[in-house]
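Dear H.,

Thanks for agreeing to be a second pair of eyes. The structure we're designing against is below in token form, covering all 216 positions.
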């Protein structure tokens, strides 16, 4: 369990520890990370760490939740003002890729959570997909998209975003990244416009509402 700070200073200190944990877990992995390395990166004493977190596992779980909260906020803000579902999809994906480029730990920490903290992993995806299902359901009912299963569509779209982000943001897109089908990690970058447009063309085609005059 983590402790909620009672003062503004405590809130800043706790945030500093989480920021340091993001860096340490991302760079070293869970096994090699330690409370000592996290507190050194945060510039605080070990005693201060234990004011807010009980163990390394607890700060890891809190980091997963914190990353989840921030990426959902980024996607919601990115899609704010969109007037159609497809505008919202495009803006949401753009915000997700931008967040990933700035916070590569989103991938590295979440993927480790599969083994370190499966319950945190499930919570991460559940919180994202719940909002996705709701949005797709509303768009389907309004006739903005076709008669798709919102649950299936939500998981498929999340998979698209995760893999495209992994290939072109986390692994990079330059010559050093290797062949198209065999990329090698090369640091963060950005999804090229042509790749993003092609991804959205495929998504639009899969989700678009069918004109009755086109037949089945």
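And this is the sequence the design step returned. I haven't edited it by hand at all.
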């Amino acid at each position: 369990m983590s402790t909620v700070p009672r003062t503004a200073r405590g809130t800043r200190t706790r945030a500093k520890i989480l920021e340091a944990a993001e860096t340490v877990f991302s760079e070293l992995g869970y096994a090699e990370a330690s409370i000592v390395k996290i507190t050194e990166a945060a510039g605080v004493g070990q005693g201060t760490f234990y004011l807010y977190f009980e163990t390394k596992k607890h700060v890891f779980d809190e980091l997963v939740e914190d990353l989840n909260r921030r990426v959902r906020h980024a996607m919601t803000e990115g899609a704010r003002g969109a007037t159609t579902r497809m505008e919202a999809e495009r803006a949401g994906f753009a915000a997700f890729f931008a967040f990933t480029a700035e916070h590569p730990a989103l991938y590295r920490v979440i993927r480790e959570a599969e083994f370190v903290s499966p319950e945190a992993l499930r919570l991460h995806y559940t919180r994202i997909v719940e909002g996705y299902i709701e949005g797709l359901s509303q768009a389907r009912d309004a006739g903005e998209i076709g008669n798709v299963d919102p649950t299936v569509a939500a998981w498929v779209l999340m998979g698209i975003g995760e893999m495209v982000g992994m290939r072109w943001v986390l692994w990079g897109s330059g010559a050093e990244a290797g062949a198209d089908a065999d990329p090698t990690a090369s640091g963060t970058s950005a999804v090229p416009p042509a790749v993003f447009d092609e991804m959205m063309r495929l998504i639009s085609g899969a989700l678009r509402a069918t004109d009755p005059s086109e037949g089945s």
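Two observations from my side: The chain has two domains: 1-54, 56-208. The first strand starts at residue 178 and ends at 179.

Warmly,
E.
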